[in-house]
C-alpha cells in the first residue's frame, strides 16, 4: 500500500490563502501565552516560508518560551510582549497580515488580544485545537492533526515551496511535531506523519540531536524538582487511576526553578500502570494564577474536563487551563473534577 498525503486545503481555500498572502507585505506571526515547542516551531517554519516569499516578518509572543527551545535557529529574534512591548505593539500595528498560530481564541494571547483586535491587519489562523468560534479572515483548522507544525509543513508543501525549505525551518517544524506528540508517543498514529518526517529528514535535519536538545538538556534543578514532586507531592485517587500534584511559588523558589523545569512532569504519573488521568497544579511565577495541566491516556477527555472545571481546553489527551489563587481551592476543584469524571476513569 502506498501512503499519500491527504490534502490540507480545498482548491478554493488554496486560492483564498494565496490571495491573502499575495497582498501582504508586512506580516506578524503570533504565538500563544506560554509558548511551547509547537507554537515556536510552527512560527519559525511559517516565518521562513513567508521570508522566502519576500515578506517582512516579525514573530511575537506574549511571554518567553522555555530554555530548552533557545537552541532553535532564529528563535532569538522572537519578540516577547512582557519584555519588548513597544516593539510588539509596533509589529502588530504595522502589519497588514497577522498569522495566529497554534491557538484559535484571542484569550490565549492575554494582553496582546486587544492589540490584535485593534490592528488594521487581516487575520489568518492556522491551528489544530478543537473549537467552534470562527476567527479572522481565514481560519485553517485541523484538530485531527498532531500539531500546528505539521499543518505548516503540509501548507508549505501544498503551496509548492517544500523544495526551497531550509534545514533550519525543517528543524523547527520537526521540533513542533515532536514536542506536541511527546516524542511521537501520543496523537501520532496517522501514518502520514511518518511520511512528513521522512520529508523533513530529506532536508538534513538531525532528529536524534533535536530529541537530545529538547529532552536531555535539563538543569540540575529540573531533576531535583521531579524527585521532590514524585516523592513528596504526588497524590493518587480512584485506586491509582488519577493523580494530582501541586507546586507552589515558594517550593519552586526553594528548588531554584527556572522556566521549563517542570515541562512534561505532568506526563510522569501516567507511567503507573492503569493510570488514566494526571493533573498538575502549579502557581504561575509571573501572574497570580494557578496553571493547570491535564494529561490522559486512551479515551479520557481532558479537554472536556478542562473546559468544565479549569477555564481551559485543549486536546483529548493533553489540555490545560487556569484557576485563581489560593492553591487549597484549586486542589478542591481538581478533586471535584476527578469525582465528577469517576465513571470515565
Ligand atoms: P500544557 O499542559 O502543556 O500547558 O497544555 C496542554 C494543551 O492544553 C496545550 O497544547 C493547549 O492545547 C491546551 N491549553 C493549555 N492551556 C490552555 C488554556 O488556558 N486554555 C485553552 N483553551 N487551552 C489550553
Ligand atoms: Mn500545538
Question: What's this, in brief?
Answer:
This protein is of the alpha/beta class. The chain contains 12 helices and 12 strands.
Kindly describe this structure:
The chain is α/β, with parallel strands linked by helices and 345 residues long. It has helices spanning 11-22, 37-52, 85-94, 112-118, 148-158, 167-180, 191-201, 207-215, 220-233, 249-254, 302-309, 327-340; strands at residues 26-30, 56-61, 79-80, 97-101, 122-127, 138-141, 235-237, 242-247, 277-283, 289-296, 313-314, 318-324. It has a 6-stranded parallel β-sheet with strand order 3-2-1-4-5-6, sandwiched between helices. A hairpin with a 4-residue loop joins strand 7 and strand 8. Helix 2 runs antiparallel to helix 6 and helix 6 (167-180) packs across helix 8. The longest helix is centred in the N-terminal third of the chain and has 16 residues, at 37-52. The protein is globular and about 55 Å long. The chain starts with 10 loop residues before the first helix and ends in a 5-residue tail after the last helix. It binds guanosine-5'-monophosphate and manganese (II) ion (MN).
Bound molecules: guanosine-5'-monophosphate, manganese (II) ion
Helix content: 25-40%
Please give the number of β-strands: 12
Low-confidence stretches: none
Main sheet: strand order: 3-2-1-4-5-6
β-strand amount: 15-25%
Shape: globular
Oligomer: single chain
The N- and C-terminal alpha carbons lie at a distance of: 37 Å
Q: What structural category characterises the helix and strand content?
A: alpha/beta
